[in-house]
């Protein structure tokens, strides 16, 4: 029972075909975004600390109130981005804000900061150029990532040339810094695109596999339901109609009414598997024998149930299937052999299982010549027993028919 409950719970996590949600479909993609955010947080944190030390040290630059304001403007969104990457919340929004604010601060640098001795070193804001690129990689679509990978280094190069008043000494050094930064930015964007593409491919393959499996499972369930419904119609509804048509006394009419009532109840409960199969609580051989005798009485058969061996307990669903399959065999013997020589044997095998044999001395039949649309044997007997891991064998010739139904504990 616990295994069945776990299986049902696991099956409930698989969406129906065509209804898989984005959360399920992008499982690997979400994990990849989380990994990228974590790596960005580590790298950006290291570069941010390096730039902060450079800013506080001054690196030859004249410290001013404007520089402190600019430092706050850049570092507040940077710290917010690092926190968002660590906790995995609002990463795109915060990273996008930092990417835009950083570019604006970088472009305004030569116009709001008075710098001296620039040849001694680069301004602290340069250390965050690639942090602006990775922020764009987290926040923006691909075309904007490429724009940031080329645009941010070019903006930095322009800033350096403005500070150096476009003198020749600055062009070589600035060209080297800009080219190196562009290459690194393109590598960062390319790696992000590659990892996301691989994750998207995995998610798509998983989605197709789940959809294929769900479709196959739905088809199998539909076929199982069709067979179960056909067996129900044949066992209960058709049997009730035949009993009503043949009723010629008060007793047979009462039996027909009882059969019709049971058929209607089972039809009304077709949505509930438990209502169809019965409880799965253990059932003893004595109760199965009692059900067989009740079936003989309801079908109006003048026969007995012979008990052999020692009966044990078996699962309720298996016992229910065994009784219904035997009931169908008894009904077939009455309908096609007029109940001649009808005899039912219930042989217990202790706790290992139970075997029920239905024998008649009618004219017999050839199983291979029965049409595919006739479900009395294929669905109501053979398929029903197979559904509970039981067995069903039918031997028939001119001297009679023997239907052997068995369930053994594996």
Automatic annotation (TrEMBL):
Protein name stated in the entry: ATP-binding protein
- A GO molecular-function descriptor: ATP binding
- InterPro entries for this protein: HATPase_C_sf (IPR036890)
Residues crossing the lipid bilayer are: 35-59, 65-86, 93-112, 124-155, 175-195
Keyword Transcription assigned: no
Tell me which UniProt keywords the record has, alphabetically: ATP-binding, Membrane, Nucleotide-binding, Transmembrane, Transmembrane helix
Task: Give the source species.
Answer: Microbacterium tenebrionis
Its organism's taxonomic lineage begins at: Bacteria, Bacillati, Actinomycetota, Actinomycetes, Micrococcales
């Amino acid at each position: 029972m616990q295994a069945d409950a776990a299986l049902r719970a696991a099956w409930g996590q698989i969406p129906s075909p065509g209804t898989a949600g984005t959360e399920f479909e992008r499982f690997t993609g979400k994990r990849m975004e989380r990994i990228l955010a974590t790596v960005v947080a580590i790298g950006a944190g290291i570069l941010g600390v390096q730039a902060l030390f450079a800013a506080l040290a001054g690196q030859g630059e004249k410290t001013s109130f404007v520089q402190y304001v600019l430092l706050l403007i850049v570092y507040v969104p940077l710290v917010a981005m690092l926190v968002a990457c660590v906790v995995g919340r609002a990463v795109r929004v915060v990273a996008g804000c930092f990417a835009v604010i950083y570019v604006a601060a970088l472009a305004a640098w030569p116009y709001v900061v008075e710098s001296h001795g620039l040849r001694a070193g680069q301004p602290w804001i340069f250390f965050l150029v690639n942090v602006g690129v990775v922020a764009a990689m987290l926040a923006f679509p691909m075309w904007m990532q490429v724009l940031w990978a080329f645009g941010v280094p070019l903006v930095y190069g322009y800033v350096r040339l403005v500070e150096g008043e476009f003198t020749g000494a600055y062009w070589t050094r600035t060209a080297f810094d800009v080219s190196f930064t562009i290459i690194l930015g393109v590598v960062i964007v390319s790696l992000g695109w590659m990892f996301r593409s691989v994750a998207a491919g995995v998610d798509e393959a998983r989605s197709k596999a789940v959809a294929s499996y769900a479709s196959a499972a739905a088809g199998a369930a539909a076929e199982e339901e069709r067979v179960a419904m056909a067996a129900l119609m044949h066992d209960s509804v058709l049997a009730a109609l035949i009993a009503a048509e043949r009723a010629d006394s008060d007793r047979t009419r009462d039996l027909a009414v009882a059969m019709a009532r049971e058929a209607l109840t089972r039809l009304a409960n077709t949505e509930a598997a438990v209502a169809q199969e019965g409880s799965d609580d253990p059932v003893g051989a004595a109760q199965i024998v009692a059900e067989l005798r009740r079936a003989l009485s309801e079908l109006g058969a003048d026969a007995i149930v012979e008990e052999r061996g020692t009966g044990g307990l078996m699962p309720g669903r298996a016992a229910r299937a065994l009784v219904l399959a035997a009931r169908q065999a008894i009904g077939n013997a009455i309908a096609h052999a007029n109940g001649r020589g009808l005899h039912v044997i219930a042989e217990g095998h202790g706790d290992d299982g139970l075997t029920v044999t239905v024998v008649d001395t009618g004219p017999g039949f050839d199983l291979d010549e029965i049409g595919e649309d006739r479900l009395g044997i294929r669905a109501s007997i053979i398929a029903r027993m197979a559904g509970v891991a039981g067995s069903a064998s039918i031997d028939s010739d001119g001297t009679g028919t023997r239907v052997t139904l068995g369930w053994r504990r594996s």
